[in-house]
Amino acid sequence: MAEINPTDCAKRDPDIPAEADRKTERVVLAFLLEEHPSQLTIPELSLSLNARTSSFSTNDAVERAVRELVGAGLLRCQGGYILPTRAALYFERLEPLG
Question: What is the pLDDT, as a whole number, of residue 4?
Answer without folding.
Answer: 56
